[in-house]
Amino acid sequence: MRTALVIGTGLIGTSIALALSSRGVRVHLEDSDDDSLRTAAALGAGTEEPVAAPVDLAVVAVPPASIAESVAAAQRRGVARGYVDVGSVKGGPGRELAARGGDLGSYLGTHPMAGRERSGPLAATPDLFEGRPWVIATTPAVDTELLNLTLELVALCRAVPVVMDADSHDRAVALVSHAPQLLSSLVAARLETAEESAVRLCGQGIRDVTRIAASDPAMWIDILAANPGPVADVLSEVAADLEETVRSLRALQAADEAKRADGAAGIEELLRRGAAGRQRVPGKHGAAPTAYETVAVPISDRPGELARIFADAGRAGVNIEDVRIEHATAQQSGLVQLMVEPSAAPALAAALREQGWSIRR
Amino acid sequence: MRTALVIGTGLIGTSIALALSSRGVRVHLEDSDDDSLRTAAALGAGTEEPVAAPVDLAVVAVPPASIAESVAAAQRRGVARGYVDVGSVKGGPGRELAARGGDLGSYLGTHPMAGRERSGPLAATPDLFEGRPWVIATTPAVDTELLNLTLELVALCRAVPVVMDADSHDRAVALVSHAPQLLSSLVAARLETAEESAVRLCGQGIRDVTRIAASDPAMWIDILAANPGPVADVLSEVAADLEETVRSLRALQAADEAKRADGAAGIEELLRRGAAGRQRVPGKHGAAPTAYETVAVPISDRPGELARIFADAGRAGVNIEDVRIEHATAQQSGLVQLMVEPSAAPALAAALREQGWSIRR
Predict the structure, then answer these.
(1) pTM of this structure
(2) Contacts of A333 (CB under 8 A, 6+ apart)
(3) Which residues from B are below 8 Å from A250, CB to CB?
(4) 3-state secondary structure of A56
(5) How distant is the Cα of A95 from the closest Cα of chain B, in angstroms?
(6) Are B131 and B110 in contact (CB under 8 A)?
């Protein structure tokens, strides 16, 4: 790939343009918003010059509702040999493009699984996609040259290609992303009108469950509006399980011992299924989640305290796989949890103790 | 408080005993399990010697279902001037104690909001409660001396006393802990039978939402069995919202534009309520969540890389408020997000850039 056109210079489009430009592709930029376009160009994402001869690949990076229209318009202009979009939903845009008489042979729907809390070209970065899955929704109509150009795009962005058909993709993201987003909001919504004394008792569990409820509502409405069916299907299944769970809890209130036993069995089965499902969530590097050992170290809140502990850990030659900092709720102190391969934990704990840290195992 | 008896030497009981012992209280230990008792004593939590004269305070740290029986038995033996329990549910044990003819004047239900993924005396630590809320479920029957002894217990454990009546407590923990636990399991349960290609697309959002679904099922069945009513009430409210959400999503599938607008409005309202509720979750030090600025730094996966970045950050004199490490799914690299007070972010970014780090803002 030597030339490309990126249509839409938001976070994703600009990040792709930055990655391609940094790897020697000549990138043209287009956006209906002049400010956004100028910002992306100023960041070195590409040139504002209009496309003169057809480029190798046009990347359409616009909101889900505008994808089909944008691809069809670009195809009519004949600005590229092939067209891909990078929206988070795949079935609708393809069907809409067909309905608009677009050319399905030169179009391929794709979805890089990457994002940030911030949006717009200023949040863009060429390494946004490094190591992330990038779904390619192949269809029988797609020609091999376009598929190869798309694989090159994914490779230039250092992402990992995952081939799926469009409807499987939409069901998958409904399951692992869109439905969890709404369920996080449903849990958080209960706190809106809760008493202050209850909210004070929040711990790390609810903090994790509700983190993504703080996401940008406008972006999520766009995404959900483009994938309502599969998300509703997942949530209906959750609703059936939830109804069963409420029934089990009510049974636990019963005077009758057999009923209580039934209720306990229902709850136990849900907890078991939850643990089994959680077990499948990929951890670091996309592998099955490794059971890391945690070495926990209480620290004070002074500047440099974290630096000191990581320096001491580094000197032990141990690779820290993950870190969690747990803050006490009313004191200027915290607990640093260093997650390491189980075999490395004793050495790390010993090295830190030697440096005067107290270890909580 | 000069003498205490801790009944039940699991994680919570042993941690309390360790805290009291380290602050000069003479602590007697009791447990029906000899191994657990001996382990706690060996850790320095207290003595296995039976109580000769009544101690100042007996702390009952047994599973929820055994609390009333254990308190009543201790009262019959007259081993202490006052009795508290530290179970995670408060209404039931008090009522059951009354039904058993226990003395409600010398008993106070309490609940330290602290725990760990691990259980048993070996996981205990005297600073488990530092800065954590410790609920005291006062009743009109409780005498002032016992209340003061309990406040002393909380102070010796360096926790923060929060006074609530028992039923408010049970509703509060149903809302902020028990119901979120089950909803995390409900989301995770959907992954048990999901296709591998879908599971591969899991990102940080679902990872956070399902983290606590990996918790110990046996412990949770005990807790939920002791608080089924309030948890069912919260989940019924969630179920009603969920039903409404599914209805909104189905409306988004409609051909009729007015119906789609209704659906979008429903989803928007849920996302708004979720964001408002999330906003109330206390952050560090129990304060309202501060909007930290994130300075993001891509790092390689070599040992010492984290040490180096924290050392460089420490030299900048900046206090790191929180850290998140995001791993690429298929590469030996990651992104370290350093969260700092917004005013400190530019200085930190500049200092790190000077040390050769690339910063993603």
Answers:
(1) 0.79
(2) A298, A299, A300, A301, A327, B130, B131
(3) 228, 232
(4) strand
(5) 14
(6) no
- Minimum Cα–Cα distance from B284: chain A residue: A327
Closest by CA to A176, choosing from A88, A72, A308, A109, is A88
Q: Which of B181, B284, B331 sits opposite A327 (nearest CB)?
A: B284
Residue B177 lies in a domain: no
Q: Residues A249, A297: one domain?
A: no
pLDDT, tens digit, for every residue of A172-200?
999 999 999 999 999 999 999 999 989 99
DSSP-derived letter for residue B323 is E
pLDDT score, position A347: 86
Q: Which pair of structure tokens corresponds to residue A285?
A: 């590097």
Nearest CA in chain A to B112: A201
Residue contact B360–A125, C-beta within 8 A: yes
A42 lies in the same domain as A98:
yes
Whether A277 and B171 lie within 8 Å, measured CB to CB: no
Q: If you measure CA to CA, which chain B residue comes closest to A232?
A: B246
Residue of B nearest to A114 (CA): B203
Helix (H) or strand (E) holding A109: strand A107-112
Question: Of A124, A143, A164, which closes a domain?
Answer: A164
Q: How many domains are there within chain A? A: 3
How many beta carbons lie within 10 A of that of residue B259, not counting itself? 14
Q: Which residues of chain A have pLDDT under 70?
A: 117, 284-291, 301-303, 325-333, 361
> Which parts of chain B register pLDDT below 70?
117, 284-291, 301-303, 325-333, 361
Q: What is the pLDDT of residue A361?
A: 56
Cβ within 8 Å, pair A187-B171: no
Q: How far is CA B233 from CA A157, B124, B230, B245, in A?
A: 48, 33, 5, 19
| pLDDT tens profile B224-245 | 999 999 999 999 999 999 999 9
Sort out which chain A residues have CB atoms less than 8 A from B202's CB and list them: 176, 281-282
Do A299 and A306 form a contact (C-beta atoms < 8 A)? yes
Tokens of A350: 């010993």
